[in-house]
Specification:
By secondary structure, this protein is mainly alpha-helical. It has a domain of about 35 residues. It has 3 helices and no strands. The longest helix has 16 residues. It is flat, with a radius of gyration of 26 Å. It starts with 11 loop residues before the first helix and ends in a 22-residue tail after the last helix.
């Protein structure tokens, strides 16, 4: 599954305070925010939808990657051996 970037606005003084106190406790703020989003997802997205998404993700993980097409080899330029 592709990842998305989430942007929110939040009062800067409160954010600074969070950074200060999480830093003192060696807490990874990004991990904490991801955990909070996971809890929101589990709380609001119906179980059958979560199961569907998980099954689709597992199926994509099992598929071998599609081979990439390589560009055709460059043809050598005319070396001046024209009989014209």
């Amino acid at each position: 599954m592709k990842n998305a970037i989430v942007q929110i606005t939040y009062p800067s003084e409160k954010l600074d305070a969070i950074r200060q106190y999480t830093g003192k406790k060696d807490v990874d703020m990004t991990a904490e925010m991801q955990d909070a989003l996971t809890k929101l997802y589990e709380k609001h997205v119906p179980r059958d939808v979560r199961e569907f998404l998980e099954a689709r993700e597992a199926a994509q993980a099992e598929k071998p990657p599609r081979p990439t097409r390589q560009a055709p080899a460059a043809r050598p330029e005319n070396s001046g051996n024209d009989d014209a």
